[in-house]
Amino acid sequence: MLKTSLLEVNEIFGPTIQGEGKLVGNPSIFIRFGKCNFKCEGFAVEYETPSGIKKCSCDSYYAVDPAFKDQWHQMSADTIIQEVKKLEPTYKTDIVITGGEPLLYWKHQEFQQLLKYYVNNGYKVTIETNASLTIDFEHKYQKSILFSMSVKLSNSLEPLKKRINEITLKRILKHTQDSYLKFVVSNDFITQAKEEIKVIAQLVPTAQIYLMPMGDSAQEIREHCQSVIAMAIECGYKYCDRLHIRVWDNQRGV
Ligand code: SF4
User: Fold this and answer.
1) Given this structure, which CATH class describes domain 7-183?
2) Above pLDDT 90, what percent of the chain?
3) Of 57, 80, 185, 222, which shows the fewest CB atoms inside 10 Å?
4) Do the Cβ atoms of 3 and 227 come closer than 8 Å?
5) Does any ligand 1 atom lie closer than 6 A to the CB of residue 100?
6) 67/119 Cα distance (integer angstroms)
7) Residue spans per domain, the chain
């Protein structure tokens, strides 16, 4: 039984380019959902809540921390589609569904309606997810979605049991064609990352693996990219840059 409540949307923006992952460079419109089941304090992006409390999380903290809930909008699938239409150029861009953790809404009727609309109307849909929640595939349109699974490593400071959901990884890779794993790695985490990713890769040996440098500024990406490229070459993984950060640093809405 699907939930019938409205969806919580943090922001809808674009057209811009997909900045990371397999479809980097593709013109895209982003729908960013509010709420996450993680905090990822290990990513150490410092921020201040609207009431002035200093915290740290990931670079999408405004879509993660309920302290920003006032900036999230309750929306139906139809309203989201109308808002996206206002941004669309004369051609179909990709649709990137991100967060927060968008799979928190997988069991919501409005979320499924949104996915169905875009897939059945010929859009390429990517869901950016931490792949930690268990989901089922019940409909054909769900199998056309590209899942960009950013499985968290111990540098996120999230507990191992929460981070790796073997059932979900296997299920997504079984039911969809091009889905892949990506990991954020920094200079000082290379040795540990090699060990941790090896263990995950053994669970899903056919998965394509991308490595990305940690950082929410162009300078940080520059600092980490060479050692991450070296690791990708050594281990037989793919390197993927974070183009949007290179170009715009951590500016929102581009
Ligand atoms: S899972 Fe993703 S969105 Fe959620 S806190 Fe971690 S990095 Fe941020």
Assistant:
1) alpha beta
2) 94
3) 222
4) no
5) yes
6) 33
7) 7-183
